[in-house]
């Protein structure tokens, strides 16, 4: 059987496989349509009698810990992206696996970064079979060219939790890089040389993996407080000299933009929110990791300050601008999914109103509700949007996989989703007849803000009504598309083969789209 | 023949531009190579365009390499044409279509609070200039272009004037000094330019030379709309001759001061307080006002210092200037907000203008506010303030309808 057999058309009209890497897959059915029943997956039963009574679980080396955990062919190994592009741990795991001659591993990171490019050699030599997580940069290109053995699976942060709970992904071995830990495995991200804020992306792994290794470069005597990860889930603790490069833990996409065009987008977005009545005393918002989205906070602050209002909570990705809002009293709480800079780390450590959250509290499809739906407005990015408001965040217009989904899909469930994006990048129009890859259905995307006009989803008659007399340039999405093509020309589409190299999962675990091999 | 010509820009930081390498040959046909970051989407159309340009200039044998960083078509054709013209002088021009949105003219006394300088050889800065809503955009052929790039910038600026939408901003070009400046006019006057800035003006003859060429071009290309001039005073001699320059021609609508060159001419240094240029600024304000044109202030060069800019604008307004240059789009808002009438000014003006209309309605010759009589110049100034406030969207056009109820 070819890895791209057994195809079906899903509810969005996209052709997707019903079998992925030998496992059955369910096509996307529509928002909230898929409701699995039964019981969630569960980890192995263990007995505390098998663990050292003095609580000392420290192993001599990462290799020793991996061997003790029974590392072998075909296992699923998870890692996390709290250190973003400064991660020094994930690559070492596969160096060891390669040295031991282990094959066909499934790498299950919460996200990959350019620093993981060295893993390509292990994808080539069969140490790693495929990746389920995100395929960024060079890994994305490798996947897009059809070079990965298995089919890549891209999930949102919430979708990752769902996949673990559904038993769709069974983690054999979780390696959690923790900036501070005690010998029992209690650990946190707020202290230590590689402080990154929180360890929320590793929560599911600690609870559901068969074996859990904590790797740290800052071992403290019991108790490690706060214990964001509970040592009661941890099998082994490994101490290394250095687990992350602090300056790379703050990634480039988390800087506020200096580009006047992007600042204008942020300003227009804030004005839109104001005119739509979204900004009010006690409202809530979330801004994504892109430079434009991050600078929205500056404009929100201006409006709140002038009116003497404050937000009830802001969802992070926190950075110094959000922290300033908290410290100035412009927001009462930060509910933080990840910290983007050292101000974020400091604030989370020292300010009880800066609260760490996880994909479980914020995004999980199998939770009894989640926070994402309470947020008044969320501001996100996209690589492409189509005339039906469907959006793409994983591939570029040349067809190559370049980004992960992050929390993007999960955030679409807020009360209002706004994508501020330039109408074109260099010569690449951003609004198209059809996106290369659908990551989010148009019915959840309410507003597209471009520097040349704002398109409101026709479903949001309430917003259209509120903006009726606005000075903002409200246009139809078709008009925006025509305007982009007038400036750039009509782009040709990339050429794809039939071969499916990756799939995009929706938040409920169904397959919303597939990514095909690019023919260059 | 055989000479290798290059035009355009390339490199890591270059966007929306292309670098063209051209060698015209005697035989062998056309060898076209393209490296483009948008090859998948636009590779074919770039090649078609390149061939069109070569055909247009009847070039049958050449090797042409285009290293493209996402340039729009008007940029690509400007780069190729500039390369060709370096080897083959030709009267022919490969012109992109003129956008009908660009066919507006501007009023003599329109607002000129902000005018945004755009380096004439940097397409990426031009493309979105209009969306920041400056009162004017200046495509700069003079100091913002390196000497060896001045020829190719002419083609880029010409094509930008035709193919780029500036969304209603007054379309300005700063030409070079002297003969090169007069020659620059051929590349801009036929393409619906609204205003020409003349650098380093020291005497009326410079204005006359430029106007002579403008008149020839307007006749040749049958251009009905006016081409306004804004001379820039940038030297001690210019300051002394400011009034003669301001009144040198009918189509001069504004006069600007350029302080970097002026302070260099004096052998002094530009300071934030600006004491060294107080005389020059006042001279320009007085000369312009006496000649019935707008006095326009120099740029504020620290783009990160918005508070400094704000103070600068307020000082500038207090001295009597009607606008200033800007070198970064983020300066526009600060300039507009601070040149615009303040709430206080508007409030006072509303009282006066309201009283003025009441006096007209009642057939009174004298405008009074309470027991105080208001002089006509005060009324005039108040009317100006109100018009400005309305233009800036700070006051509703029909404000008088609701004013009575207050």
A few lines on this structure:
The complex is a heterodimer of chains A (520) and B (406). Chain A has 520 residues and is of the alpha/beta class.
Amino-to-carboxy terminus distance of chain B = 79 Å
Radius of gyration based on Cα positions of chain B: 24 Å
Number of strands of chain A: 30
Largest sheet of chain B: 8 strands, parallel, barrel
Portion in beta strands of chain B: 15-25%
Mean pLDDT of chain B: 94
CATH superfamily of the largest domain in chain B: Phosphoenolpyruvate-binding domains
The main pleated sheet of chain A reads as: 10 strands, mixed
User: What oligomeric state is this?
Assistant: heterodimer
* Average pLDDT of chain A: 94
- How many domains of chain A? The number is 2
Strand order in space, largest sheet of chain B? 5-6-7-8-9-10-11-12
Shape of chain A: globular
CATH fold label of the largest domain in chain A: Glutaconate Coenzyme A-transferase
Number of distinct beta strands of chain B? 14
In the CATH hierarchy, the architecture of the largest domain in chain A is 3-Layer(aba) Sandwich
Q: What does the model show?
A:
The complex is a heterodimer of chains A (520) and B (406). Chain A is of the alpha/beta class. Chain A folds into 2 domains: 31-249, Glutaconate Coenzyme A-transferase (3-Layer(aba) Sandwich), CATH 3.40.1080.10; 252-489, Glutaconate Coenzyme A-transferase (3-Layer(aba) Sandwich), CATH 3.40.1080. Chain A is built from 15 helices and 30 strands. In chain A, helix 8 packs across helix 9. Chain B has helices spanning 39-56, 73-87, 123-127, 150-163, 178-188, 204-220, 236-240, 242-246, 259-266, 278-291, 306-319, 330-339, 343-361, 376-391, 399-403, and strands at residues 4-8, 18-24, 30-36, 62-68, 114-119, 136-140, 170-174, 195-198, 228-233, 254-257, 294-297, 323-326, 367-369, 372-374. In chain B, helix 11 packs parallel to helix 12. In chain B, strand 5, helix 3 and strand 6 (136-140) form a beta-alpha-beta unit. With 406 residues, chain B is of the alpha/beta class. Chain B has 3 domains: 4-87; 100-339, TIM Barrel (Alpha-Beta Barrel); 343-403, no CATH class. The chains are: A alpha/beta (520), B alpha/beta (406). The A-B interface holds A 260-261, 263-264, 397-399, 425-428, 451-452, 471, 487-489, 491-495, 520 and B 15-16, 37-45, 69-73, 127-128, 131-132, 165, 328-330, 393.
